Amino acid sequence: MKIRLFIITELILLVSALVNLLREPGFVICLALAIVVGMLLSKCRWFILKMMMAILSLIMAVFILGNFYIWAAIVIAVIAIVIFVKVPQKDQNFDIIDTFYDEREGVVFDKQKLNFSAASAEEYYRFDDINIIKSISDDVIDLEHTNFRKLDNVVMIRKFAGNTKIIVPNNMAVSIDFSSMKGQANFFGEKTVSNRERIKYYSHDFSEEIPHLRIYVDVVYGDLTVIKL
């Protein structure tokens, strides 16, 4: 919800900035001249045209940097980065090393650094391989009463922001591949934090000859919870 509010606020500020700039005759004239010069530059690379484009760009930059709404958008963006991307504390139940093993459950977490719509919405699927692409949403996927194939079954979710909860049946071997710039992972009660990381999980029975469920979730900001009921 906070991310959605941030995006809406930024869009309002940027639209307000554009409207405000278009009310400035000087900016409109410079913009029109820059478009004409740009079209001429696409046909000939005269030095005088390059100089004119540089001067026009500098003048428009002065107009843009003198706009209140632009600075408001920058300040809010910086505040959002501090809130959403600050480095979280590691969960006290986990070691600091990137790969570790939990003897209680036979669970292996493998972390790799990444380079780079409405809340409480519930969705239920008759199972075929699931491939979901969304922008911003919180989702619940209930697979408890689903008839799975005997071999691999795949759930793939990609979205910008939002939390995801997946309910799987007890008789499934599960592997999870979770990538997030900022989020938390809760896999059957085992918790860790993802900070620009890729987290891989394999259940202790993954090598057994039972139905396998492979879960892939890629989200910029959001948590992933996988449970068995």
TrEMBL record:
Domain Cell wall-active antibiotics response LiaF-like C-terminal: 121-226
Membrane-crossing segments per the record: 27-48, 55-85
Keyword annotations of the record: Membrane, Transmembrane, Transmembrane helix
Entry protein name: Cell wall-active antibiotics response LiaF-like C-terminal domain-containing protein
GO CC aspect terms: membrane
Domain of life: Bacteria
Matches recorded under Pfam families: LiaF-like_C
